[in-house]
Amino acid sequence: AQRVTQPEKLLSVFKGAPVELKCNYSYSGSPELFWYVQYSRQRLQLLLRHISRESIKGFTADLNKGETSFHLKKPFAQEEDSAMYYCALSGQGTSGSRLTFGEGTQLTVNP
Amino acid sequence: DAGITQSPRYKITETGRQVTLMCHQTWSHSYMFWYRQDLGHGLRLIYYSAAADITDKGEVPDGYVVSRSKTENFPLTLESATRSQTSVYFCATKDRWMNTEAFFGQGTRLTVV
After folding, report:
1. What is the DSSP letter of A56?
2. I want to staple B96 with a disulfide (CB 3.0 to 4.6 A). Which of A38, A97, B30, B66 is the partner?
């Protein structure tokens, strides 16, 4: 079974402070991991995928297979980062690729 | 326009009625998904489909039915709506290649009274 856990439902930081959104996963195999973001009244959109090792809007995420984690980090939070963030795992279901999301973390960046 | 569209955007229905939420894509992506989004639960997978005529249950399939006779459409039917099915429903598509991005519809806000 595949599972994604985001332990913090709410996270509040001040502008300019570092931020880390935690994500742990459970999957017996090589997972594809993603971070999606949902800004207010907008549809979900991809932020990062682990395979790319890229930095988007200052965010980075490193896959740690030993700890089964894929935490999202940004050194200096901005007010426009306020949004709902979802960690997602794509693994093999009985009928092919099954995309599972965590419960989400609502990030608020205060001025 | 190319993309993924859901209809209707908003729906109010009565307990016990059958409701169908539509999802249409123009990309011919192999995979399609239905999720419900509830406070405290995040996005939960209802059903998914790897191709036309191939569907499978997700985490919370009870009370829902799907079909996929054509690649581009993936309707979700609530056979007999209950208040607990009040939620925001999202459809998503994903190409069959590894590590590809999933694209989401704008959501359908369903209220069961």
Report:
1. B
2. B30
Whole-angstrom distance, CA of residue A81 vs CA of residue A47: 11
Residue B48 near chain A (CB below 8 Å): yes
How far apart, in Å, are the Cα atoms of A71 and each of A7, B18, B40, B73?
11, 41, 20, 35
Q: Which of residues 17-36 of B touch A (CB under 8 A)?
A: 30-31, 33, 35
CA atoms within 13 A on the CB side of A16: 1
With beta carbons less than 8 A apart as the criterion, state whether A46 and A2 touch. Answer: no
pLDDT at position A52 is: 77
DSSP result, B58-88: -S--TTEEE--SSTTB--EEESS--GGG-EE
Rounded distance between C-alpha atoms, residue A47 and residue A54, angstroms? 10
Q: What are B69-102's pLDDT values in tens digits? A: 999 999 999 999 999 999 999 999 998 876 788 9
B43–chain A Cβ distance below 8 A for any pair: yes
Please report, rounded to a whole number, the percentage of residues in chain A having pLDDT higher than 70: 95
CB A46 to CB B102 under 8 A?
yes
Residue pairs spanning A and B at CB distance below 8 A: 75
Q: Map residue A50 onto helix, strand or coil.
A: coil
